[in-house]
Amino acid sequence: MRHETVLCTDGTQIAFECSGSGQPLVLVGGAATSRAVHCELATQLATEFTVINYDRRSRVW
Fold first, then answer.
1. 59 is a domain residue
2. Is there a domain that residue 61 lies in?
3. Best label site of 11, 28, 43, 44, fewest CB within 10 Å?
4. Reading across the β-sheet that carries 49-54, which strands appear in turn?
């Protein structure tokens, strides 16, 4: 699993994790959650997919 960040044009950093291999699958969390909510699901799905699990803007894990 790789932990990375991307920088938005307004300077906000968005953290994400990428794991597995196969077709890409992006997990989108709820409005008040971080990517931590989907860690177990991401691990299970990574056996068949490339899973991108990210923090929404202003959410920190």
1. no
2. no
3. 11
4. 2-7, 13-20, 49-54, 23-27
Provide the domain count of the chain: 1
Rg of the Cα trace of the chain?
11
Closest by CA to 53, choosing from 45, 44, 39, is 39
- Residue 54 neighbours by CB distance under 10 Å: 21
Domain span including residue 40:
2-54
Please choose, from the candidates 40, 10, 9, the residue with its C-alpha nearest in 3D space to the C-alpha of residue 53.
40
* Predicted pLDDT at 60: 55
Cα torsion 55, 30, 57, 21 to 10°: value is 30
pLDDT digits (tens, 9 = 90+) for 17-45: 999 999 999 998 877 778 888 899 999 99
